[in-house]
């Protein structure tokens, strides 16, 4: 099912080796500043794509509920250990190229340090747009190939690839840097309007990070972030977009719900904009669609509710698609849509 290839962090100690003991406090602080500037103050349901071990998740405190999505269940287990298991956080292991959510579900989404691993970035962005409501906010961070270091290396002939051309550069397997103009084009094509651009991590140099206190470097970066509106030569770029361009598309019952099940799913309109009026375990089921045939709603088998809370006996819990009969496991409070079970 997974095409294009997905970068899998299963069993990776990324959080510990890269963030906790990898000298990345400067980058983490800069990202926190950028996120604070770009995030809506409040909201209902935020989708965090590439949530990993939940490093950024506490920064979404203004939202009533956060769905953490990652391809790796082990990363999500680390996030659970950090954030706990409650109705506030929903953990979903899935492929970004076939998201298991009904259209127009979320009023916000973030994708930080994740596009970096996308072999087909436009396809992933189209999926994100589909699950957002019109007017929703999408905050995207991407790695910028047109950064100062790459420009200098290219000028000194120490680097083969051209930082000024639009195609992505894969500098390591499933690690891509993108040209800002290319990313802007993809976002516009799939139905986003770019509202703000911040450049981040201006001083990502080992020597500087050793010599200058991190708080001072982060403070300087904070000032320089606003230059993102003018040019982008930092290794990391944040953009805030608004979901537009699809309001005129009439709701299609068949998009997420087969006609026979439309009454069970509510109308097609409800399927497209299924923000639950109140938060409860049964509402979570209404979030999902079949990632294979797009049918919604899915069903739980042998249970009348999904147990995401600690202490539940959920060993045999699974979701099933009434249309194509595929099944997906719910293990340890993680909805696992990566592979079907039999
Ligand atoms: Zn199905």
Outline: globular
Helix fraction, binned, reads: 25-40%
Lateral strand order in the biggest sheet: 8-9-5-4-1-2-3-13-12-11-10
Number of strands: 13
Radius of gyration: 20 Å
What hetero molecules are bound to the protein chains? Answer: zinc ion
Number of helices: 12
- Mean pLDDT across residues: 85
Helix/strand order, N-terminal first = HHEEHEEHEHEEHEHHEHHHHEEEE
List the helices and strands and how they pair.
Blueprint: H1 14-20, H2 25-38, E1 43-49, E2 63-70, H3 73-83, E3 89-93, E4 106-111, H4 121-130, E5 132-143, H5 148-155, E6 169-172, E7 175-177, H6 180-190, E8 192-200, H7 206-211, H8 214-224, E9 236-243, H9 253-256, H10 262-265, H11 268-272, H12 281-285, E10 299-300, E11 318-320, E12 327-331, E13 334-336
Parallel strand pairs: 1-2, 1-4, 2-3, 3-13, 4-5
Antiparallel strand pairs: 5-9, 6-7, 8-9, 10-11, 11-12, 12-13
Zinc ion binds at residues 290, 292-293, 295, 321, 323-324, 326.
Describe the structure.
With 342 residues, the protein is an alpha/beta fold. The protein has helices at 14-20, 25-38, 73-83, 121-130, 148-155, 180-190, 206-211, 214-224, 253-256, 262-265, 268-272, 281-285, and strands at 43-49, 63-70, 89-93, 106-111, 132-143, 169-172, 175-177, 192-200, 236-243, 299-300, 318-320, 327-331, 334-336. It has 12 helices and 13 strands. Strands 8-9-5-4-1-2-3-13-12-11-10 form an 11-stranded mixed beta sheet, with helices on both faces. The site of zinc ion (ZN) has 8 residues, from loops.
